[in-house]
């Protein structure tokens, strides 16, 4: 469909000026009057780095990093040792950002494990700012538990007694304390427990920070013993490299996160790709055509435009043929999928998804099992066709 209709519309549409251009230039281009309202920022009421933003009629408070320049962060945490436990995706991104912000941060991981070696490669020095988990927690005042969620549960019996009064416990996911009946992570009652959950991979936490930008993160307080927990969460959010911070609760963070990644972010979208591709193949279309109409055009052209400008803009920017059909079919997909999303949310909220994750990810051979599943996905025709299509992109041609 779109290889005929949408690109042509992007070139020819007169209602919305979208001349032939790359995604980047399209994003940077000034919107036409017809679409200006779609891309205009909501009303912003600044107050010392705290903004009240109208999100489609609901006012929410957003914290931005302007209120926390580097010098202020350094002063705020001058008596703290940030003990970062685990050096996976988030540990790497948050740890390096904290270090570059000039804060006193140490890393605690299993000696001679993969993370230990990676930390050394990133310049952490054994005995100086790289320790085993127990030593790091003993030295830390703010203990950042960035182990994998399954490992947080597994190691809790060793970690809990080290979390003595006066320390702060930090998470980047509400998973462990919210589902404490399943994870057994029952936090001590005499310490602050806070959350900073970056809305993206730890690699992005790092790359955006290095570009002078900042990822968006959620912040939350699970337990406020000192009265300063929220302020600490905000300061930590900025210190690990966030640009904006949205306030939430541990429960809401974990429910929305587990739901989203199983839904539109990965599981749902993969299911939709497969369903569309299979029907195209069953109806006689070639692999390249089926892949282009399902994935390539989506990820290379339309989704970035939707991300930059919104869905109404996208509808306005495509041909009238594409627009009519897409607007007609959208409610049918919504009606078909909503019961599945409802089932998914219930499965998240009841802890079924957590139990499944804990059971699976704590098996000794879980890595090998994932490797096998990923190999099966890699070998699906759609993704083998995708590999060939990607190799044709000019930037991938040597
Ligand atoms: N990844 C993301 O995009 C993302 C985004 C937002 C929030 N989060 C949250 O951030 C937290 C950390 O996630 P992550 O993705 O960065 O984790 P990860 O990459 O899975 O990190 C695993 C870390 O846990 C350690 N580990 C695993 N099993 C262990 C055990 N039994 N004993 C001691 N250490 C063990 C690993 O050390 P070894 O190398 O020694 O095995 C490694 O340092 C989680 O709560 C996650 O939900 C993640």
From TrEMBL:
One of its GO terms (cellular component) is mitochondrial nucleoid. Its cofactor is Mg(2+). It is an enzyme of class 1 (oxidoreductase). Signal peptide: none annotated. It is found in: Mitochondrion. GO terms for molecular function: double-stranded DNA binding; isomerase activity; ketol-acid reductoisomerase activity; metal ion binding. Keywords: Amino-acid biosynthesis, Branched-chain amino acid biosynthesis, Isomerase, Magnesium, Metal-binding, Mitochondrion, NADP, Oxidoreductase, Transit peptide. One of its GO terms (biological process) is L-valine biosynthetic process. Binds 2 magnesium ions per subunit. Mg(2+) 1 binds at residues 257, 261. Its EC number is 1.1.1.86. Belongs to the ketol-acid reductoisomerase family. NCBIfam families: ilvC. This is Ketol-acid reductoisomerase, mitochondrial.
